[in-house]
Design goal:
The complex is a heterotrimer of chains A (358), B (257) and C (336). Chain A is an all-alpha fold. Chain A is built from 15 helices and two strands. Chain A has a single domain, classed as ABC transporter involved in vitamin B12 uptake, BtuC (Orthogonal Bundle), CATH 1.10.3470. In chain A, a hairpin with a 2-residue loop joins strand 1 and strand 2. With 257 residues, chain B is an alpha/beta fold. Chain B has one domain: P-loop containing nucleotide triphosphate hydrolases (Rossmann fold, 3-Layer(aba) Sandwich), CATH 3.40.50. Chain C is built from eleven helices and twelve strands. In chain C, strands 2-1-3-4-5-11 form a six-stranded parallel β-sheet, with helices on both faces. In chain C, helix 2 links the parallel strand 1 and strand 2. Classes of the chains: A mainly alpha (358), B alpha/beta (257), C alpha/beta (336). At the A-B interface, helix 1, helix 2, helix 10 and helix 11 of A face helix 2, helix 6, helix 7, helix 8 and helix 9 of B.
């Protein structure tokens, strides 16, 4: 065996005439499809944007009332809470994790904000700060369990989801704080529900908040080292660690920030629903709604790929489908069916885009 | 001449297995030192001890004459030792520039950088392009393209360029040609020589004898957890080297350090 | 002789104070988060304590969780309970498990939600939900007067699976309002143009707001809103308020929980049909106690196939021809 190896010492001589430009970084010849794949690969939010535009056009053609400003601002209001939970979910999924606890955290922090104000008589502004801190701390606990104890994110957040939801019911004694009481005594809790006029229609501050959060987080993820590290951790944590990223610290920060955003969503919920209700459906299904927006938005569940902007479009797509189908008077179940189709198509598209490296 | 990186009496045990048994190591300025050894000889454990990925149980390491003890790869890196791992440690979905600057990004000057923490992408791209060009790597069209769109050789090139760009004292390459085709290996060997020609000492761990003999100035033969001998590729043939590392032939008397 | 007397005395004393010391009962609710069921549990627990019955409470995780209720029934049978009080999530799906319990000699009483068929349980202690709906329907029609002929009605129901409670209230409301029903066993098949549409709320504020928004975007002229319960009504009110419509829309609801009655005082809801979960639960426990003592089973309200625990219309603006109680009376009787 060694014999042949020695004889073959000059085997590379024949290569001297071969082109040696293997490491050149250009590739000019490409089919249109390949180029399209390339574009999608570098701009992951493009797919959901196309789907969004298409669904807007289709619903606009099918239902004339759909294209009114009132309809469009209503969709934005309806997705505000899910959109903010989606931001939290996006951060975690970008690190190749998953957060099942976002909805429960949102409901619990809204209950904390309400109960601290009404049960303990703490000024509402301080209760809000406490609520935001509780959300951040809960997120940090998720992060600590994932990064330091090395438990799978699915298991960790499955656990904290149940724990926090149960704590929510026990702590609140299942009691709802009524909208009228909040309005009279602590209107700041309903701040994000404040409506304002745009042209002939109205929107709530929650809509502006969602847009602001999306823009800020898109900037943070794209334009800062912290953002790049988040992607790197999700892409390949070992590579990131070897390249000099402090993976554990990054993970804890990501989960803590996600927790903060769930608390923001909790605050927004009070504005939207008026009351503080521990039985809000968000506690049970908020996680799935957020994951749906993230997946339809083209963020890869394997981590490291996708953008917040895509998630925003994903949430809008769900909102457009829900309201559009409702206006057409279809069976509500059809909405879920179509959203299921969208989810699978989105993941299939993601897989196809990822093949670019092969 | 003083070695730039020196180790004496490195010992590392994993349970009952002795991976390093009083191993020594010397790397001189401006040379390519190849480390060869049979599988299980402990060469990768030794390299990891030098790059901070493993802490030896005992033994000492000197860098540039100063005694050092690395607890993480980051530690070693801060002191000027860059390692290109066999896995390359690249994030496939991120761009070439992002990868080159991973963990040591440049921020914009002024409030954009200090308050908004904005990355200085133009500077990062310029630097990345410069480094790749310096190594004769490319006619890059798009420095922002993701690493996963590159071939194996190109990725190796990016990883080596990253190490060369930031390694101030030593570059360690772990099996850089193992996963590459013939033509791509050739390119990487040229890269190694270019790095050396720019005055940077290189440690090359490899199984591939022709590659070792082509670029190495000296060869460190590792056997049974220790340095068996150091030979010059000019004085010995590949079959000699293989014979030393497999124990088929008695090692020559150690040359003076 | 002396000794015998003493023993009898002790036995008598036991009969008087703790006749049911060995009796145990199960309470299985849809969830343990909805205040309605929380109050029901409290009512049952208080009565059980009074009678010296051991009470075990079970609940589904979410509304519609049939599996958890099936498991709870199996546990109760294995436990040797004398009877089960249940508010079924899946009124038809739970029937085979109920039959198993009855075969094992347990008294099964459906609380609040009739089973499908209703005689699958030994007895049903419930609000007459159709009547509850009818009362608010009549009230709304009377409130509108002649304008009722041109009303634009939004129907905010419970869920797409159309649970019986929701259907009964919905259809009762429509009948009370003077709208011709299709099949009274389901909603959504009416062809009266005054109905703008039906949407589902899951019975909470979130669902109420979204459903109201969805219907308002379809027809901004809506002026009558039927809601399945008061949390849904509160959510609907937020949507109306956001569009500046809160003052010219009549919202009616069913439940009579304390926050709901308070919402009538605050003008969020016009009228609500109050029901009495505490009464259902305590009557249920008494029935199990009687069954354990002598095997007797409760009788239905004459003329109905269930025991009617009563319903009262609560409103601050009574109308002619519809009997109602005041907000103060409603607050005195409210639960939650």
């Amino acid at each position: 065996m060694t014999e042949t190896e020695f004889k073959g010492q000059d085997f590379e001589k024949s290569l001297t005439d071969a082109t040696a430009n293997v490491a050149e970084f250009d590739d000019s010849e490409r089919s249109a499809l390949r180029r399209f794949q390339q574009i999608l690969h570098s701009t992951p939010s493009l797919v959901p944007l196309i789907v969004l535009a298409a669904s807007l056009i289709v619903f606009g053609l099918l239902e004339e009332r759909f294209f009114r400003a009132a309809t469009l601002t209503l969709i934005m209001q309806q997705i505000a809470v899910v959109g903010i939970l989606g931001v939290a979910q996006s951060l975690v999924i970008l690190t190749a994790g998953i957060d099942l606890s976002v909805g429960a955290f949102a409901v619990f922090t809204s209950v904390v904000m309400g109960q601290f104000t009404f049960r303990y008589g703490i000024p509402p502004a301080i209760s809000i700060v406490i609520g935001l801190a509780v959300g951040t701390a809960l997120g940090a606990i998720n992060g600590w369990l994932v990064a330091k104890v090395k438990l799978p994110p699915f298991i960790v957040t499955l656990g904290t989801w149940q724990i926090v939801l149960a704590a929510n019911f026990m702590y609140s004694a299942n009691e709802t704080i009524r909208s009228q009481d909040i309005e009279a005594e602590a209107p700041i809790l309903q701040f994000w529900g404040t409506s304002f006029k745009i042209g002939a229609t109205t929107a709530t501050l929650a809509v502006l908040l969602l847009i602001a959060i999306v823009i800020i987080m898109a900037y943070v993820l794209r334009q800062t080292a912290w953002g790049r590290h988040t992607y790197a951790v999700g892409d390949d944590p070992e590579a990131a660690e070897l390249a000099g990223v402090q993976v554990k610290r990054q993970l804890i920060q990501v989960y803590a920030l996600a927790g903060f955003f769930t608390a923001v969503a909790g605050w927004v919920m009070i504005g939207r629903y008026g009351s503080v209700s521990p039985a809000a459906s968000t506690g049970q299904i908020g996680n799935i709604q957020a994951i749906t927006a993230v997946v339809i938005g083209g963020i890869s569940l394997f981590g490291g790929r996708g953008s917040i902007l895509g998630m925003f479009f994903g949430a809008l797509i769900v909102g457009v489908f829900e309201l559009g189908l409702r206006m057409l008077g279809t069976n509500p179940q059809l909405t879920y069916l179509l959203i299921g189709v969208l989810i699978i198509s989105a993941v299939a598209t993601d897989q196809w885009i990822r093949k670019i490296s092969g | 001449m003083e070695p730039i990186l020196k180790a004496r009496g490195l010992v590392k045990r994993f349970g009952k297995v002795i991976a390093l048994n009083n191993a020594d190591f010397d790397l001189y300025p401006g040379e390519v030192l190849a480390v060869i050894g049979d599988n299980g000889a402990g060469k990768s454990v030794m390299i990891k001890s030098l790059s901070g990925a493993i802490r030896p149980d005992s033994g000492k390491v000197w860098l540039d004459g100063d005694e050092v003890a690395f607890s993480t790869p980051l530690d070693a890196r801060k002191q000027g030792i860059e390692t290109v791992y066999q896995t390359l440690a690249l994030s496939p979905a991120l761009s070439i520039a992002d990868n080159i600057f991973m963990g040591r990004e440049l921020r914009k000057k002024g409030p954009l950088g200090t308050i908004l923490k904005q990355l200085d992408r133009p500077a990062m791209n310029r630097f990345a392009r410069e480094k790749l060009t310096e190594l004769g790597l490319m006619t890059i069209q798009n420095i922002a393209q993701s690493v996963e769109t590159l071939s194996g050789g190109q990725r190796q090139g990016v990883a080596v360029a990253r190490a060369a760009a930031f390694g101030s004292k030593v570059i360690i390459l772990d099996e850089p040609t193992a996963a590459l085709g013939v033509k791509e290996s050739r390119k990487v060997l040229e890269l190694i020589q270019q790095v050396r020609d720019r005055g940077m000492p290189v440690v090359l761990i490899s199984h591939n004898m022709p590659h070792v003999f082509e670029v190495a100035d000296r060869i460190h033969v590792h056997r049974l957890g220790e340095r068996l001998c150091t030979i010059s590729p000019k004085d010995y043939t590949m079959s000699d080297a293989v014979a030393f590392m497999t124990g088929a032939k008695e090692a020559p008397a150690q040359e003076a350090a | 002789m002396h000794k015998l007397l003493l023993t009898s005395a002790i036995a008598f004393a036991a009969t008087a104070t703790g006749a049911f010391a060995d009796t145990s009962a199960c309470l299985i609710t849809k969830t343990d988060t909805n205040p309605f069921f929380v109050k029901m549990r409290e009512g049952a627990a208080a009565k059980a304590e009074e009678l010296g019955i051991e009470l075990k409470a079970y609940a589904g995780k979410i509304d519609g969780d049939n599996e958890a209720q099936v498991a709870a029934i199996e546990t109760c049978i294995a436990d040797g309970a004398s009877g089960i009080l249940i508010t079924a999530s899946d009124t038809a799906g739970i029937v085979p498990s109920i039959q198993k319990a009855r075969d094992a000699g347990l008294l099964v009483i459906a609380l609040d939600t009739p089973l499908d068929p209703i005689d699958a349980a030994d007895m049903t202690f419930a609000t007459d939900n159709f009547l509850a709906g009818e009362l608010i329907g009549q009230w709304a029609a009377a409130k509108l007067g002649d304008a009722a002929a041109d009303a634009r009605i939004a129907m905010l129901d419970l869920g797409v699976s159309q649970p019986t409670v929701g259907v009964l209230r919905d259809q009762g409301f429509l009948q009370g309002f003077g709208i011709e029903l299709g099949d009274p066993k389901k909603w959504g098949d009416e062809d009266d143009p005054r109905i703008v549409g039906h949407d589902v709320t899951a019975g909470n504020e979130e669902g109420g707001r979204k459903a109201m928004e969805n219907l308002l975007i379809t027809d901004p002229e809506i002026n009558v809103v039927y809601t399945i319960n008061e949390p849904a009504a509160a959510g609907a009110y937020e949507a109306l308020k956001a569009m500046g419509r809160q003052d010219d829309v009549i919202v009616v609801s069913v439940d009579g929980g304390c926050p709901g009655v308070q919402n009538i005082a605050d003008g969020v809801i016009g009228a609500t049909s109050q029901q009495y979960p505490l009464l259902m639960a305590s009557l249920g426990i008494e029935a199990i106690a009687a069954f354990a003592a002598d095997g007797s089973k409760p009788e239905p309200t004459p003329g109905k196939d269930f025991y009617d625990t009563g319903v009262a219309l609560v409103t601050g603006e009574p109308v002619d021809g519809v009997e109602s109680i005041s907000i103060e009376e409603g607050l005195a009787l409210c639960w939650g």
